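Open question from group meeting: does this chain pack into something compact, or does most of it stay loose? Before anyone orders reagents, we agreed to write out a predicted structure and look at it together. Recording both the input and the output here so the notebook holds the full record.
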Amino acid sequence: GHGTATQLASQGMQDHVRHHDDGGTHAGTGQQHARSNGDTRADAAAPAPATEEGFRDVFNKFCGREDGMDGRSFAKMCDSAGLYGRHFSKNDGDIVFSKFVPKGQRKLGIDECRRCLRMIAEKSAKDFDDVLAMVVATGGPQLTGTPTDYVRFHDDKNTFTGTHVHGGPEAGAMGHGTATQLASQGMQDHVRHHDDGGTHAGTGQQHARSNGDTRADAAAPAPATEEGFRDVFNKFCGREDGMDGRSFAKMCDSAGLYGRHFSKNDGDIVFSKFVPKGQRKLGIDECRRCLRMIAEKSAKDFDDVLAMVVATGGPQLTGTPTDYVRFHDDKNTFTGTHVHGGPEAGAMGHGTATQ
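Structure tokens returned:
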């Protein structure tokens, strides 16, 4: 019925707080407390004396950006300073904090923190100046992390090759974004140029030669008919009355339109450019305008792009092929009635054999 050790320790701390409030006297200094309790830590060399400026600086560092020290920061300060021990537990620290925190608030000021440390010194049988010096010696909260492992090809510069021997390539200027963002920006500039009526020099083949793209020299696909394009468009739409963004991306992927000059992100920009306002699906005319802009961006002829889309024949449904099972796929292993083709199927509606 006397409770656990933690409860007893907490009761002892509460009695100590009550004794402190009642103005009870304490016999001797902290060193005398230590000798009476058999604590040998008081005989160690005392820390360097702490200054008021040093304590204020450490207090502000533990507070961080807050205007006071909350319970979590107070516990971290006590832990970093090594104040927890046999005579002062973490549970005691919570009791001291709740004792001196102003009523209706959740943070300590510097004066309340100093009063907490004074009570901790009395409870731990230490001199108050020594406790203050231990706190100041921390210098503030210590940030620790997991050290990285040694990787020879990254850490040993003798293994570097190419441009990394001379320090590596130059880093890009800050704020220029990633390659994907740059490609998207180029596509947006192209859309803006298209809206402003900008002219495009020559055909798709001329664009390809100026960009060094050899794909334009390949054999052109068979010319696409209007009926063929309409049929493929309807197949990608399925049962819907238009083509949504997912179907448009699938059509571009099936036709092989994505590449160095036209990314999936560019496809989303083109789709959102030509989709009617307030709607989420393309009609056949809007889809044709999208393909025309894709042809300009990819340096291809529009008829070739249209032919590539028609050549898909619609969405291709793919699935996982089944594994080979000898007793199912090899008919030479069949026995019984399966040698002659298997049992006859029951008539529809007659139920199972059990029924």
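Observations to bring back to the group:
The chain has two domains: 5-138, 179-316.
The mean pLDDT is 76.
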